[in-house]
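Hello,

I think I submitted the iron/sulfur cluster job twice by accident. Can you confirm which output corresponds to this input? Input:
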Amino acid sequence: MAADTTPEQVLEQIGAEVRECTACGLCAQRTKAVPGEGALKSGIMFIGEGPGFHEDRQGRPFVGPAGKLLEELLAAVGLHRNQVFITNVVKCRPPGNRDPQPDEIAACADYLERQIAAIDPRIIVTLGRFSMARFFPGAKISAIHGEPKYADGRAYVPFYHPAAGLRATSVKQSLFEDIQALPAIAKRLKELHAAGYFDRQEAGADADNTAAANEPGEDQLSLF
Ligand code: URA
Ligand code: SF4
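Support: Only one job matched these inputs. Its output is below.
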């Protein structure tokens, strides 16, 4: 990346590549690829599973019924979807909304990695088990949903998938409880940064990893 390339430009470049991508079989039946969208500076990123019917038509993430619930969840903590970044593990719709296959997730992983690197979010919320598996290998969502993992200077927070919340009231209830904990998680994250927790966690791994360099940016998490 050239020194004068902004994260927004990197995201645009990734989006352009995704729209042309033929790296896995999901390219064959897609209408539109769905790279992801939203604001970068809040430092909050939501990662879902993959586009569904509506997303495939519009080329935008979470614009169907699951997206409506996601918007309600965000509103419960005073956020609008355009204040956070929203993307998926796979960027093209699995036919009939079947689960994404391991080879498809692997083929698409580099786009997600590059998005995370460009945004450098302070909070990553995973929506559903395929997204969770990337950060919590082997975990069970019913056991760990809502419980943050503080690592890499971030909070990783696993949520149920909003589509599951549409199918079961108890899951929907859990989603609202879990999102209501986000402001406290953001506060805790700031405290951990201030206390140098991540420097100790990574001690020896990165000589430049001073507390100051690791402070969340001025804009990041200021929404809460
Ligand atoms: N479900 C997802 O996982 N992602 C979307 O973008 C829409 C529905
Ligand atoms: Fe490429 Fe990902 Fe779409 Fe597969 S799902 S074609 S890897 S963008």
